[in-house]
């Protein structure tokens, strides 16, 4: 999916309520669930959001326009988000705020090393934390009058987006168990599971990643993952 101009900023309730009003945020994220969380955070903050779900799609966006804020997931289907961060950090003119995004805490170091101004850990839920992270990294001349963070709010993405992610993984596992594909499935599921506070799925994804690192047979683990994914598609696991 490649969503352009998904949601406008809407009306303003004042800088304290919508401190990112007038800004455009490009989100590079392959998970529908995580992207839905960011959509809600941007909407509540007054920002316009565009989304790309791969490095290729993001680069096409960036050829056409330059957002105020770039948020890049580190694990993408066609490569590492750190590569895009490095490209954009050295580009001139530079995007005002570049943030890495991941469910893996160690990814913060990769983001900063690549040139990111900050890092957003999954799950994304606090509106105040999201606004603060961005506002602290934007230049004063872009903000105009110093904005303030509004009252905090915990956002709750639509569970349908979570099931969409599960359907995506189910399709992948039906088509192939290629090693590189399983590596992608493991990192994708880790991020989605942490965003959804699904400990069982996160643990299974971590086990799959470890099996791949050890070079051990993956058949049994892939089957277990497929079963967990099917349960969540059927709604047996409630967020």
Features:
globular, 6-stranded mixed β-sheet, alpha/beta, Rossmann fold, 239 residues, two-stranded antiparallel ribbon
Brief synopsis:
The protein is 50% helix and 14% strand. By secondary structure, the protein is of the alpha/beta class.
Overview of this protein structure:
This is Response regulator. InterPro entries: Bact_response_regulator (IPR050595), CheY-like_superfamily (IPR011006), Sig_transdc_resp-reg_receiver (IPR001789). The chain has helices at residues 32-45, 55-64, 81-90, 107-114, 127-135, 140-143, 159-175, 179-195, 199-214, 219-233; strands spanning 3-7, 24-28, 48-52, 69-73, 75-76, 79-80, 97-102, 118-121. It contains 10 helices and 8 strands. Strand 2 (24-28), helix 1 (32-45) and strand 3 (48-52) form a beta-alpha-beta unit. Residues 4-15 have low confidence and may be disordered. The strands form 2 sheets. A 6-stranded mixed sheet has the order 1-3-2-4-7-8, with helices on both faces. The protein folds into 2 domains: 3-143, Response regulator (Rossmann fold); 159-233, no CATH class. The longest helix is centred in the last third of the chain and has 17 residues, at 159-175. By secondary structure, it is an alpha/beta fold.
């Amino acid at each position: 999916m490649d969503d352009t101009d998904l949601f406008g900023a809407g009306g303003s309730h004042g800088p304290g309520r919508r401190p990112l009003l007038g800004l455009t945020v490009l989100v590079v994220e392959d998970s529908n669930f995580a992207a839905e969380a960011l959509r809600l955070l941007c909407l509540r903050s007054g920002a316009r959001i565009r989304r790309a779900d791969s490095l290729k799609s993001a680069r096409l966006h960036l050829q056409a326009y330059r957002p105020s804020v770039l948020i890049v997931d580190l694990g993408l289907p066609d490569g590492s988000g750190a590569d895009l961060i490095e490209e954009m950090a050295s580009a001139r003119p530079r995007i005002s705020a570049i943030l890495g995004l991941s469910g893996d805490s160690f990814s913060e170091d990769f983001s900063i090393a690549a040139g990111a101004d900050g890092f957003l850990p999954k799950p994304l839920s606090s509106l105040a934390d999201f606004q603060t992270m961005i506002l602290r990294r934007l230049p004063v001349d872009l903000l105009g009058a110093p904005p303030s963070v509004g009252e905090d709010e915990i956002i709750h993405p639509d569970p349908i987006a979570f099931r969409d992610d599960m359907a995506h993984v189910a399709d992948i596992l039906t088509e192939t168990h290629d090693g590189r594909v399983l590596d992608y499935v493991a990192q994708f599921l880790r991020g989605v599971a942490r965003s959804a506070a699904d400990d069982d799925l996160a643990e299974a994804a971590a086990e799959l990643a470890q099996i791949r690192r050890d070079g051990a047979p993956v058949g049994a683990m892939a089957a277990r993952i497929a079963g967990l994914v099917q349960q969540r598609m059927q709604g047996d696991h409630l967020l």
